[in-house]
Design a protein that fits this description.
Layout lengths: L1 H25 L17 E3 L6 E3 H4 L5 E7 L4 H13 L5 E8 L3 H11 L5 E5 L3 H5 L7 E6 L4 E6 L4 H11 L1
Length: about 170
């Protein structure tokens, strides 16, 4: 009798563990911070090439849209999306702003020299705080901001053909 109770208890415990396991597998643990409609707060940083301190308040003026692109020279997907950024920089109604994320400055400068500079300005985000305050949690990320400094769209990962078309449709 004692063995039967022990066996039934063991079977119930295993069933309970399996239910918890399968329930956990069906729940998504991906967290994407909500940034849409968030107003960008002023941030200051050094410029990649001039080493002068610049303020976002002086950069985010006189344009209908701003595109903030968070990138790094060590980021493979950043290299993959760079030709699309070069194409995007030709649009006169858009101001493309780079935020260089936790990078070696020499490598970042070489990256831009090698692949071209699509940015009107590049902020240096040495410790990643600017990117985190913008709601980013990786590179590359592209954020579209309107003239009211409100985030209207965020693209996580590199700009593939689909996201590039969506980005261009927003800018029209």
């Amino acid at each position: 009798m004692k063995n039967k109770i022990l066996l039934i208890s063991l079977i119930l415990f295993i069933c309970f563990c399996l239910v918890v396991l399968f329930k956990g597998l069906n729940n998504s643990n991906v967290y994407i911070p909500e940034t849409t409609n968030k107003i960008i707060k002023e941030f200051k940083s050094r410029s990649l090439f001039s080493d002068d301190e610049i303020s976002s308040e002086k950069i985010l003026v006189n344009s209908d849209y701003y595109i903030l692109n968070i990138w790094a020279s060590w980021c493979g997907p950043c290299r993959k999306e760079h030709p699309k950024l070069m194409e995007l920089s030709k649009n006169p109604s858009v101001k493309l702003i780079g935020i260089n994320y936790r990078d070696n400055l020499k490598n970042a400068k070489n990256f831009v020299k090698k692949f071209g500079n699509p940015y009107s300005v590049i902020f240096v985000d040495t410790n990643g705080i600017i990117s985190i305050e913008l709601g980013a949690y990786g590179v590359p990320e592209t954020i579209i901001v309107n003239k009211d400094k409100k985030i209207i769209k965020k693209f996580i990962g590199y700009l593939d053909d689909k996201s590039f078309k969506e980005l261009n449709s927003i800018l029209k």
